[in-house]
Amino acid sequence: MKKYIIQSIRLTVVLTVLLCVIYPVLITFAGKLSKGQGDGEKIIVNGKVVGYAAIGQKFDKPQYFWGRPSAVGYNAAGSAGSNKGPSNPDYLKDVNSRIDTLLKYHPGLKRADIPADLVTASGSGLDPDISPEAAKIQVKRVAQFRKLDEQKVEALVASQTEKPWLGMFGPSKVNVLKLNVALDALK
Amino acid sequence: MNTELFGILASFIITLLIGIPLGKYLAKMFAGEKVWTDFMKPLESGIYKLSGINPNEPMNWKQFLKAMMTINAFWLVYGFFVLMHQDKLPLNPDGNPGMSADLAFNTILSFVANCNLQHYSGESGATYLIQHFIFMFLHFCSAATGIACAIAVFKAFRDKTTTDLGNFWAYFVKGITRLLLPLAIVIALILTFNGTPASYAGKDKFISLQGDTVNVSRGPAAQMIAIKHLGTNGGGWFGANSAHPLENPNYLTNVVEIVSQMIIPIAMVLAFGYFIRRKKLGWMIFGVMALGTLMLMIPTISSELGGNPAIAKMGIAQTTGAMEGKEVRIGPMATAYWSTLTTVVSTGSVNGMHDSTMPLTGLWQLLAMMINSFFGGCGVGVLNYLIYVIIAVFISGLMVGRTPEFLGHKVEAREVKIAALITLLSPFLILAGTAIASYVFTNFGNADWAVKPSTWLNNPGFHGFSEMLYENTSSNANNGSGFEGLGDGNIFWNVLTGLVIILGRFLPIIGPVAIAGLLAQKKYIPESAGTLKVDTVTFSMMTFAVILVLNALSYFPALALGPIAEYFSMLK
């Protein structure tokens, strides 16, 4: 028994060095060669960091494309979904009021054209993307507010739509932050 | 839609393409045959030498279990104190506080047991030191523990009559150096180059495009995320686990993460067949497990793609499926696919919130964890399945009126008793735990505790009951996922699930190793015309039936009160 205890302690120390020092530090150094140097990929506009490519941020002003509802208000110090069950009456009320808000800001929008991702909270609360349909229904509002040509904004959305991986696997999506950065650059 | 389907098909095919050869490799490597990773030998000898271990020392089943339990007990004690005092230790750039005693108790049990139920949130509840030196360390070691115990059982059946199950330390170390560590390095590099942070930098702060000040949690996450999947652990770096866009940045990483959590469980099943030189038996077990997994997966996918009926009534287009708690870059189909696999293999990492999935999806998730042997966790999945096999052998033996035999050994009262007790343990822990929680919730809702029991549930009605049932089921299965709406960060849940986790981990490991040890001590009876053949389709279906009947009988009433009742309440 005593033999096992001593072996356990010694093995734990040796493996700690291998698994908790050598292995992670090796990956950290390799990560320096990656796009974000292993710190996360930043988006920089005019020399200023305006966000992380992977982290969604809150957009509720009418001149921007909006992202998905978030259970944590896009506070990236933490992360969480709403964890509301599908039959929860309070949750369904929330969804209903999100639909009303969308209808109010987008006159002429039909309910059947609202994609589910725009009225439901994401799993992380930090989802950086929306579906291409969710971007399309906002084009008119954004164009009107910015006094831009609607077709130009539409073309921007199309150019910012990311195709499935290798063109074959997974959904298409639009990164809201990148879209809005490109929108600000549009004359 | 079609691209989402191609996505999960590709994931499935890649899983098999890696898992099958990996099974052959594991059988050879653990048997000590020549393999290409023999270049690791000097590293291993170094580890043995520094630890004072003789890797060739034979161990009988009692010694084997003693060694296994000793090192696990040491991790429990050592980890408990480090968690409580993490705030005073280095590598804490975000200034996170130490854990309370009950939270530390739950967390360390959970990680030692390969469960990774997380009652803290990664960003604010654990320092970088803890995430690496305790959590990531245990990600490797708990997986290697399970694998080592499975190999001991394999050896008992291969050697026919023996008392030597092999050396625990040798299996354990080789599991790390020749399987987990090399694969983890590859996966961590893929994640890092796709945007998962890997540096030790603390929180960052920036002003968003709209003018809000935002803090972003970061840290050396890629290293831990790689092994959390590979070792079927599931304890993530960030609170939202693999739904977090830094933990799972794009569709490619999603495929890599889902593939990596399946390959070892699949490989272990096939390795069993190759190791004991009964290839067909390995494939038969694989067939039963794959069938069970598909039977859980197909209805899950269809229920998620159907969307939420309550939202459909509002006139909203759910063209891709239900989106609450899911991420756009992953999509409902890959989330549903993942939710089945993470519950069958006891990983418990999530790429979408299970609490917000449809009622029937919740049913299949729960059932997957209750069965807990369709592939199952690293090593332990095979062990759990072995228990069902012993029961099936016993029942078949009774049916044909012969002494039950398994792989040339008479299965007698002692072995069947152990198997029966292990089979009863899961329903007991899950149902008793849920019953206690429901009792406290209904009768002491306003008790003057730090967190009032009446505020535990995030959802009313049947779904609230499902939240409590899920928490206990996940703990017993050492899965670690949750219906995360449950307010589980308090002393009641920490202690209750802590106890369920430790009993649900170690008894189902000790049982099969003991059975294998006892059987291997007996005389080997060569196969004859009267032998019950266990590598046939008939016997496989018998085992499958035993699994279904045992679980249906145990859990149907509880499932009827939770997800099934919620499903019917939404139909009207």
Automatic annotation (TrEMBL), chain A:
<dbReference type="GO" id="GO:0005886">
    <property type="term" value="C:plasma membrane"/>
</dbReference>
<keyword id="KW-0813">Transport</keyword>
<keyword id="KW-0406">Ion transport</keyword>
<keyword id="KW-0630">Potassium</keyword>
<comment type="similarity">
    <text>Belongs to the KdpC family.</text>
</comment>
<comment type="function">
    <text>Part of the high-affinity ATP-driven potassium transport (or Kdp) system, which catalyzes the hydrolysis of ATP coupled with the electrogenic transport of potassium into the cytoplasm. This subunit acts as a catalytic chaperone that increases the ATP-binding affinity of the ATP-hydrolyzing subunit KdpB by the formation of a transient KdpB/KdpC/ATP ternary complex.</text>
</comment>
<keyword id="KW-0547">Nucleotide-binding</keyword>
<dbReference type="Pfam" id="PF02669">
    <property type="entry name" value="KdpC"/>
</dbReference>
<dbReference type="GO" id="GO:0005524">
    <property type="term" value="F:ATP binding"/>
</dbReference>
<keyword id="KW-0472">Membrane</keyword>
<keyword id="KW-1133">Transmembrane helix</keyword>
<keyword id="KW-0812">Transmembrane</keyword>
<dbReference type="InterPro" id="IPR003820">
    <property type="entry name" value="KdpC"/>
</dbReference>
<keyword id="KW-0633">Potassium transport</keyword>
<keyword id="KW-1003">Cell membrane</keyword>
<protein>
    <recommendedName>
        <fullName>Potassium-transporting ATPase KdpC subunit</fullName>
    </recommendedName>
</protein>
<comment type="subunit">
    <text>The system is composed of three essential subunits: KdpA, KdpB and KdpC.</text>
</comment>
<keyword id="KW-0067">ATP-binding</keyword>
<dbReference type="GO" id="GO:0008556">
    <property type="term" value="F:P-type potassium transmembrane transporter activity"/>
</dbReference>
UniProtKB/TrEMBL annotation, chain B:
<keyword id="KW-0472">Membrane</keyword>
<feature type="transmembrane region" description="Helical">
    <location>
        <begin position="418"/>
        <end position="441"/>
    </location>
</feature>
<protein>
    <recommendedName>
        <fullName>Potassium-transporting ATPase potassium-binding subunit</fullName>
    </recommendedName>
</protein>
<keyword id="KW-0813">Transport</keyword>
<feature type="transmembrane region" description="Helical">
    <location>
        <begin position="6"/>
        <end position="27"/>
    </location>
</feature>
<comment type="similarity">
    <text>Belongs to the KdpA family.</text>
</comment>
<comment type="subunit">
    <text>The system is composed of three essential subunits: KdpA, KdpB and KdpC.</text>
</comment>
<keyword id="KW-1133">Transmembrane helix</keyword>
<feature type="transmembrane region" description="Helical">
    <location>
        <begin position="64"/>
        <end position="84"/>
    </location>
</feature>
<feature type="transmembrane region" description="Helical">
    <location>
        <begin position="133"/>
        <end position="157"/>
    </location>
</feature>
<dbReference type="InterPro" id="IPR004623">
    <property type="entry name" value="KdpA"/>
</dbReference>
<keyword id="KW-0406">Ion transport</keyword>
<dbReference type="Pfam" id="PF03814">
    <property type="entry name" value="KdpA"/>
</dbReference>
<dbReference type="GO" id="GO:0030955">
    <property type="term" value="F:potassium ion binding"/>
</dbReference>
<comment type="function">
    <text>Part of the high-affinity ATP-driven potassium transport (or Kdp) system, which catalyzes the hydrolysis of ATP coupled with the electrogenic transport of potassium into the cytoplasm. This subunit binds the extracellular potassium ions and delivers the ions to the membrane domain of KdpB through an intramembrane tunnel.</text>
</comment>
<feature type="transmembrane region" description="Helical">
    <location>
        <begin position="258"/>
        <end position="276"/>
    </location>
</feature>
<keyword id="KW-0633">Potassium transport</keyword>
<feature type="transmembrane region" description="Helical">
    <location>
        <begin position="374"/>
        <end position="398"/>
    </location>
</feature>
<dbReference type="GO" id="GO:0005886">
    <property type="term" value="C:plasma membrane"/>
</dbReference>
<keyword id="KW-0812">Transmembrane</keyword>
<dbReference type="GO" id="GO:0008556">
    <property type="term" value="F:P-type potassium transmembrane transporter activity"/>
</dbReference>
<feature type="transmembrane region" description="Helical">
    <location>
        <begin position="491"/>
        <end position="520"/>
    </location>
</feature>
